[in-house]
Amino acid sequence: EITGIAEKIAKIIIRFIGVKRAILSIVLMGAILTYSGVSLFVAVFAIYPFAAQLFREADIPKRLIPATIAFSAFTFSMDSLPGSPQIQNVIPTTFFKTDIYAAPTLGIIGALFIFICGMLYLERCRKKAAAKGEGYFGKGGATSEMAATTSAQLVQNPIASSDVIPISYWIAFLPLVLVGVMNKVFTEFIPVWYTKGFDFASIGLKEYGTIDMGQVVGIWSVEMALLIGILSAILLNFQAVKEHFQSITSIGVSGSILAAMNTAAEYGFGAVIAALPGFVMIQNYLTGTFSNPLISGAVMTNILCGLTGSGSGGMSITLGLMAEKYIEAAANFDIPLDVLHRVIAMAAGGMDTLPHNGAVITLLAVTGLTHREAYKEIFGITIIKTLAVFFVVGVYMMFSIV
Q1: Whole-model pTM?
Q2: DSSP state of 207
Q3: Strand, coil or helix: what is 277?
Q4: Which PANTHER family does the entry link to (predicted)?
Q5: Is residue 283 helix, strand or coil?
Q6: What Rg do the C-alpha atoms of the chain give, in angstroms?
Q7: Which pLDDT score is estimated for 141?
Q8: What is the torsional sign of CA 101, 104, 109, 112?
Q9: What are phi and psi of 211, to 5 degrees?
């Protein structure tokens, strides 16, 4: 955001799509940012100023902004599209020894299903509001802006449709492209470089022994690719980073601590729930009812993600409890682990966005809205995302697409 990359990407999207299609513009912006590795929490802060400006220009109710941002950042780009570096797509790699490109065709089909259904739903919400005469500030039109003021002024210097887009704007996509390309490169070559695993003794850490690369290649490749993306973003506008280094470091540290503590608290809560005798009964019931690991995994992950309010926390608990059983069942049903990876990753982004979810609370706080005002539309997106994983399971069972 400080380097101006987010603003340039937003302006290019608006240049081609137009202000009138504000919902589509914001959805694409959020998807691009999150798919390139920007944290969901960070994406909310980066997207909102542009969303507020575009929705105001198009006179779309402000209460639809949270659902639009949630759809853009918390759904198909987070865990459905193959290659997404978000944690929900990385965690399964450590359990199944897969990579973040697992089941690419199935993932793309799921992403298209979510995108089409989500856009139809948001457009329906917009049209219903317009039919009632509801504008950006509601029906009265005199409500004051509730969110904190932001420094972004997107439409003051828009790129006119007749203008040639400057090269500097296209270069803004370089860090995003580098993350995707280097992610794939490291995924392919790290196992080749360390065929016998990585020996920590070679860097003076004997106590850690030798690690099997199959368990960490997904995480290591993402982290190294993101590091390269960060360095390239800094180099593109080093002066801006230098001038604001202290402030952005403070914001970055506080933001990361908030996200980490939220996730840790949710994970801890989920772990306590998972240890209760009642949950063991539910676990045994689901395992006995759904012998197919895809259905069992999707249901179990959704339940735990809903209880914890965290996709990563709920999925980690699910796989910690059930990964070995799922692997064994997948072998019995002749289901590739790549498919199991994709289904459970997508399930993690289903019922996690219930009202107590940390990202939802942050999103509403940033936009200055309440659950009463804006959560209804967010829940609509939650339902679509939850149904999508079972749609993907059905597609695989009918056509064996991977």
Answers
A1: 0.86
A2: G
A3: helix
A4: BLL7963 PROTEIN (PTHR30354:SF7), GNT FAMILY GLUCONATE TRANSPORTER (PTHR30354)
A5: helix
A6: 22
A7: 54
A8: positive
A9: -110, 140
Q: Does 72 have pLDDT greater than 50?
A: yes
User: What integer pLDDT is reported at residue 24 of this predicted model?
Assistant: 96
Coil, strand, or helix at residue 113? Answer: helix
d(CA 63, CA 74): 17
Residue 365: C-alpha distances to residues 40, 374, 381 (Å): 14, 11, 19
- Pairs from 132-136 (Cβ < 8 Å, separation ≥ 24): 134/61, 135/59, 135/60, 135/61, 136/55, 136/56, 136/59, 136/60, 136/61, 136/62
d(CA 302, CA 351): 5
Pick from 117, 39, 25, 99: nearest CA to 341: 99
Cα–Cα distance between 301 and 299 in angstroms, integer?
6
Is the pLDDT confidence value at 374 over 90? yes
Cα separations in angstroms, 150 against 48, 342, 367: 9, 37, 11
Please say if the pLDDT value at position 157 is more than 50: no
- Residues 46 and 21: their CA atoms lie apart, in Å, by 19
pLDDT band of residue 140 (cuts 50, 70, 90) is low
Cα-to-chain-centroid distance, residue 310: 12
User: Comparing C-alpha atoms, which of 251, 253, 259 is closest to residue 1?
Assistant: 251
User: Shortest CA distance to 310 belongs to which of 113, 78, 51?
Assistant: 78
Boundaries of every domain in the chain: 5-165, 242-399
State the Cα–Cα distance between residues 257 and 260, nearest whole angstrom.
5
Q: Are 326 and 36 in contact (CB under 8 A)?
A: no
**Average pLDDT over all residues of the chain:** 86
Helix (H) / strand (E) element for 199: namely strand 198-199
Query: Could you give the angle at which helices 311-332 and 337-348 cross, rounded to 10 degrees?
Result: 150
